Amino acid sequence: MDHLLWLIPAFPLVGFILLALWGKHLSRFRTAIIGAGSVSLSAILTLFIGLNFLHSTPADGHYSQTLWTWFEVAGLIPKITLYLDALSLVFVFVITFIGALIHIYSVAFMAADKDYARFFACMNLFVFSMLLLVLADNLLLLYLGWEGVGLCSYLLIGFWYENPNNGYAARKAFIITRIGDTAMAIGLFVVFYQFGTLVIPDILALAPTTWQEGATVTTVTALLLLAGGLGKSAQLPLQTWLPDAMAGPSPVSALIHAATMVTAGVYLIARMHVIFQLSPIAQMIVAGIGAATLLIAGFSALTQYDIKRVLAYSTISQIGYMFLALGLGAWTAAIFHFMIHAFFKALLFLAAGAVIEALDHEHNMFKMGGLKNKLPVIFWTFLIGSASLAALPIISAGFYSKDQILWYAWASEHGNATLWLIALLGAFLTAAYTARMLLLTFWGDAKTAVSHYPGKFMTIPLAILAFFSLFAGLIELPHNFGHFTLFSDLLHQVLPETILRTGIHGELPFQLLAFLVTFGGVYMAYIFWYKKPQLIEKLKQSPPLTHLYRFWFSGWGFDQIYHVLFVKPVVFIANINKDDVIDKFYQGITILMVRLNRLLSVTQSGSLRWYIIGLVVGAILILSIQLML
Amino acid sequence: MMSTPIATEIVILLAGLLFVLGIVGVIIRKNIIFMLLSVEIMLNAAGLAFVAAGSRWAQPDGQVMFIFILAMAAAEVSVGLALILRIYHQHKSLDIDKLKEMKG
Questions:
Q1: What is the ipTM of this complex?
Q2: How many cross-chain Cβ pairs, A to B, lie less than 8 Å apart?
Q3: Is the pTM of this model over 0.95?
């Protein structure tokens, strides 16, 4: 089976090359076939290989295929090797399967766009890079994929480049993630310096014997890798790019900024979990950042009026949950939440995209409303996605994944009451902003007329994703509720088990509390944004609350702080240095040369007499010098 | 009938004098023909110096060089005169100061 591994990333790459080279000459139909077909082929092949993997797991727990040696330099010999184990299988499955659905959706969604081929070319390149990222067996190849997805993210956020704001959002995303990427590159240097190899399984095997637990070098490496993850996964303090990244088309937001690329940080930390386990401080920081991010983004999501920005903040918040789980040592819970989140968040973004298109590019939720009966398919799928996001107990997949994280926030060996309370408050906020979004969009009076109705290409992917948002959670049930652990059994081939604190028992009260909190959040949203909207108006009268609202709305003022701290000084220095201080020196040389030229050109008078005098004087000078010496 | 040999130094001095005369002629004369004549004088001064040196060391080389200089001077004069003829046709003048074209 492993000899077919290379085909998974090869299909999207071929699709990209075809579309990039001949995209302008292909008909829309052929473009759609190549664009969506390449990823669909990858998805089918992944199912095939995945089933084979599950059916007869190889003894060493992975398939690998070496294609060729990339280069050889001073002991660094990275090979183009694909490595598929349980962890990467989950990621490859999500990337290709959800990727294929989103591509099919895009066939209809982007149908009217003039740059049809460019869109699919970028999307295919993205899928290829993302697959390279998760299939890489060494960190250098992973980094290639890592930069590739960053590039595609930039290209697709700025897809509608005629609007300068979109270009600005694209640059912002690129530059902020670049901060993390740079830290990560330094982390790779440290790893190579320490181990003399970048092959991931070798590093994981060597690390426990080479490094002391809690040693400085371990912590520094872990933090550098974490910084890379923070940039890509939009976590504190590098989270500000994601809400602006919503400038891209909705399928892009669904694929890149919800389902796959933004979880690359989660993948990286899970992949390098040994290093994080060796550094309790770094792991504590991961959990702390996750907890802080999920709260901050949750509050911000509650105040947004642009439906896609709500979803963006919600994505940041949910990835915060994943980081929290990683920090708690609940590795499988993080990956499980990643998978479920990919399903329902892709669904929500696609459904939101359909709503936005149906209302003639209206993003403002307060101008929507009453779509419940007009767009029934969208409504039902959106409802299912929202239920999963809000972690509605028992019936939604999101419940099973988030409940695990809540439980481990209390019960794992790194867990404590504070983290648990934050996670619980986050769950309350999630339920509240999800219900608010749902109520504003689909209930109430219709404020904008529906101008388009989504076709089959858009509704079928939504229905499939809705199915998974409901039932994907059933592959992993809580300990006291079925205790079915298919997913974590699979991942425990790669990731260690979560260690619980001693003397912890009774999962049930915590689950009941989570139920209550979820319903509390939904009820609060119901009161404020449906039943008694005048309450909100009343609250807006009091100045402190208005300030708080503005503060949350602007994403806790991070943009303003960064503007003052980084953007302004840089612009200031750039202004001073507008005509390049160092260039002055070279300009001086040219000015000197021009002066000398003027001086000498006076001698070119055209007067033969002076030339001869010059010759004679020169000859006398040379002769006299020779005589003197 | 042998004339008394003349000291080489005097001949060289004469050659130097002729050469300086030639240079001064080239520098101060306005007419191109006169400048050409002055150049000829310089050439002959050099030739004279060669002959003097050849006789001083009793070598034929000096005279050989003089023959060369003669031939070269003849060629130079023919080319120079041809150029002067062309210049006169074109500019109707042989005044070197009027023929300046470069302004520096």
A1: 0.83
A2: 27
A3: no
